[in-house]
Amino acid sequence: MLRIKIFVMSALVLALLSVVPAQAASVEGINHIGLLKAINAARGKVVVVNFFATWCMPCLQEIPGLMNIRSSFSEDDVMMVSVSVDKSIEEVQDFVDTNPFNYPVYWGDDAVARVFQISAIPKLLIYSQQGALAVKHEGFVSEDELREMLKELVAK
Description:
Structural class: alpha/beta
Strand order of the largest sheet: 1-4-3-2-5-6
Distance between the termini: 66 Å
Order of helices and strands: HEHEHEHEHEEH
Helix content: 40-55%
Number of strands: 6
Largest sheet: 6 strands, mixed
Shape: globular
């Protein structure tokens, strides 16, 4: 009888866990060295780095297109990350908790903004499969524009 009760309780716990919504990813801080290492480690892929802030309206308009693009390119071909330049990691975490991304989101420190020369956002950097900076764009980029850029770079 005790085995049956344990089995039933285990089944109930598993059933309850399966209906709990997935937690949003935890936002981690990244410095310029970590970001440069990640870009370098992705050689052989096109790398998209999007700099944004949670208070930036053009940034927020760009994010759905970035997520659509992430879904339409193989992770073997394209690596995508966003780096927030918000004042605190908590602001970014709150945003990610309510807007689940399908690619990693980091909070960048002041050195990231300096090294990557972030003077306006959104800012998009795209690196070729060889690791060279291929695109540097400040301001909103439409999903269609970005898709065309990536198709061209992936084909090389």
